[in-house]
Write a structure and sequence with these properties.
It is a single chain. This protein has about 300 residues and is an alpha/beta fold. It has one domain: TIM Barrel (Alpha-Beta Barrel). It is about 40% helix and about 10% strand. The chain is built from 13 helices and 8 strands. An 8-stranded parallel beta sheet has the order 1-2-3-4-5-6-7-8, sandwiched between helices. The two termini are about 30 Å apart.
Length: about 300
């Protein structure tokens, strides 16, 4: 066995042991999202982040993906989905493009959420300043990265977001709403677990203050493991994510919308009712998006 493989195996064992010590796998007895609700400064106030409110109300939610500047498509799709996923990891779309779309249709039915390439302070700052109400951070393997994402997305005292210029306050601070005082409750921080290391660390990742949703990534789990979705080893990784996230009191999501329905391994899940946030599921009113050319198709969240 080569030295790198020995190191990888040893690291995997240590990661799994750490997750178990943190309580991953223990039975869930409290309402999903209890820690998110507990973190709110004004728990009785209705949220203008409608997708976060729906999660707190126990609903399943789905998105429509925008991966290039298309104001007309965004404004139409935002009428019919729970949230819009602005894809900035696997596209060349710019912050200026996203800013233009958010400004064109302020306060739509769908919550604007940006998937960023990483958890850097600059990227998160820009996403929040242009009016996003949520961020998604891909390939989170450690609680340190999850903590960083949550901190940069919120103003002090909960986080360390800098206060600066941008259209966010003019979009959301209307009708008597104080954006600075309310945005910390209204931001939705999503972190994606896409690797075995991330799955083994699901509980300490999810338990970071300010993390609201953990999104389990179906395609990239196969990419990083080589396991097909029906493989028991693949399913066990998703069970680890499920148990860790629910124990931490956060919301559980999956890229594959079929995880929200019963079905055989690789299609549905026996714990389907626990999966709440999905990527590119159906609209809430039956609206069908226009057919787009293959070159403009949304990149897979994986």
């Amino acid at each position: 066995m080569s030295a790198p493989r020995v190191w990888t195996t040893a690291a995997a064992i240590l990661m799994m042991s750490a997750a178990l010590l943190h309580g991953q796998g223990a039975p869930q007895t409290r309402e999903q999202g209890w820690a998110v609700r507990q973190s709110l400064n004004a728990p009785a106030a209705p949220l203008y982040n409608t997708v976060k409110q729906k999660l707190l109300d126990g609903k399943q939610v789905a998105c429509f993906t925008i991966s290039r500047l298309d104001v007309a498509l965004y404004c139409e799709a935002a009428k019919h989905y729970d949230y819009i996923w602005f894809e900035m990891q696997h596209s060349t779309m710019s912050f200026r493009d996203v800013e233009e779309m958010i400004a064109a249709c302020p306060r739509p039915a769908a919550t604007p959420i940006v998937r960023l390439p990483d958890a850097s302070e600059g990227n998160i700052q820009k996403a929040m300043d242009i009016g996003a109400l949520g961020i998604d951070i891909p390939t989170v393997d450690s609680p340190e990265v999850a903590m960083q994402a949550a901190r940069y997305a919120r103003f002090p005292p909960e986080g360390r977001r800098s206060q600066g210029a941008g259209q966010a306050a003019s979009i959301w601070g209307v009708n008597g709403v104080d954006y600075r005082k309310t945005i910390n409750d209204n931001v939705l921080v999503i972190v994606q677990i896409e690797t075995p290391i991330g799955a083994w660390n699901a509980y300490p990742i999810a338990a970071q203050p300010g993390v609201d949703v953990v999104l389990a990534s179906n395609g990239d789990m196969t990419n990083f493991t080589g396991y097909p979705p029906a493989d028991p080893r693949y399913q066990e990784l998703f069970t680890q994510i499920h148990d860790g996230v629910l124990r931490a009191g956060k919301f559980l999501g999956a890229v594959t919308p079929s995880y929200g329905k019963p079905g055989p391994p690789g299609v549905g899940r026996p714990d389907f009712a626990d999966w709440r946030l999905f990527y590119n599921g159906a609209s809430f009113d039956g609206w069908q998006p226009p057919r787009r050319p293959a070159t403009a198709a949304s990149p897979a969240a994986r």
